[in-house]
Design goal:
The chain has about 110 residues and is mainly β. Helices cover about 0% and strands about 55% of the residues. The protein contains no helices and eleven strands. The strands form two sheets. Strands 2, 4, 5, 6, 9, 10 and 11 form a seven-stranded mixed β-sheet that branches. The radius of gyration is 13 Å and the shape is globular. About 30% of the residues are buried.
Length: about 110
């Protein structure tokens, strides 16, 4: 059974930083693309970042330059380093692995 467990969310002031983590189990990790999506209240889900199995990254326009996705295949973990956070970054952030998604972790950025 595939499990993706996100952590690292929380409340942060605008301009601050957070590092999200996603630990995977029950599935092959190293050969799969990984990523993060987010969904704010009343808004559509949007892609935040993706990383292929060979390290190619893609970022959403709204976060480009402020976030970095990384992975540790030995730990089966995906990370999202978020800097210069803005109130509009407030959302539930979901880990993506292949066709699977996690339960999400709340990020709230206060102004």
């Amino acid at each position: 059974q595939v499990q993706l467990v996100e952590s690292g969310g929380g409340l942060v002031q605008a301009g601050g930083s957070l590092r999200l983590s996603c630990a995977a189990s029950g599935t092959i990790f190293s050969s799969r693309a990984v990523g993060w999506d987010r969904q704010a209240p009343g808004k559509q889900r949007e892609m935040v970042a993706r990383m292929t199995n060979n390290g190619i990254t893609v970022y959403g326009d709204s976060v480009k330059g402020r976030v970095t996705i990384s992975r540790d295949n030995t730990k089966k973990t995906v990370y999202l380093q978020m800097n210069s956070l803005k109130p509009e970054d407030t959302a539930v952030y979901y880990c993506i692995l292949g066709g699977f998604g996690g339960q999400g972790t709340q990020v709230t950025v206060s102004s």
